[in-house]
Inverse folding.
């Protein structure tokens, strides 16, 4: 993927994260510093399970727990999306990795877009997602320290307090996919 396709995505994320203003349904201009909506708008509400604070266990392709993480998801963009901040932790609780996701529901398509960026490493991921038979499925592309990749992920076993996320990547243009990581989320009380 040419660099020119990466820059617009990163600029969009930077603008959203910097708190750019947006107009609410009433026409009133709000910003990221205003109180976030407590719920998601119609069409976006299937991801409501993800709102709140989570403890996450992260496993590698061999099934070994590599680390744990904490994430906090909140409604953004007048309830049309979610932002979650990711903090990977070592065994002492020290932050070893940071990232954030923006998940935005696009009513015109009935689909989600997901943008992931990291603070501690170069790279990003862009995905498009749908709900299929009670699972949240996404496919897209990105790049990291290992190069450009295609990615697909699946949120499953979703309850009000738990979920499983399986991430697969292909670094060969989609000829083969391998398990990148498996995550188990547990909502904090």
């Amino acid at each position: 993927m040419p660099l020119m396709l990466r820059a617009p995505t990163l600029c969009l994320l930077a603008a959203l994260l910097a708190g750019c203003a947006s107009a609410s349904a009433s026409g009133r201009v709000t910003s990221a510093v205003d109180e976030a909506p407590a719920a998601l708008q119609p069409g976006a509400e299937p991801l409501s399970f993800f709102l709140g604070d989570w403890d996450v266990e992260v496993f590698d392709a061999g099934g070994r727990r590599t680390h744990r993480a904490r994430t906090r998801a909140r409604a953004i963009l007048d309830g049309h999306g979610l932002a979650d901040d990711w903090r990977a932790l070592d065994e002492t609780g020290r932050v070893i990795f940071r990232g954030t996701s923006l998940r935005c529901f696009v009513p015109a398509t009935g689909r989600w877009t997901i943008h992931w960026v990291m603070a501690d490493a170069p790279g990003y991921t862009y995905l498009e997602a749908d709900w299929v038979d009670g699972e949240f499925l996404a496919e897209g592309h990105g790049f990291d320290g290992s190069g450009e990749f295609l990615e697909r992920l699946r949120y499953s076993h979703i309850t009000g307090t738990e979920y499983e996320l399986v991430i697969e990547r292909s670094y060969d243009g989609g000829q083969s996919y391998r398990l990148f990581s498996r995550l188990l989320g547990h909502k904090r009380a």
Notes: The radius of gyration is 16 Å. The mean pLDDT is 83. Helices lie at 3-17. The first strand starts at residue 22 and ends at 23.
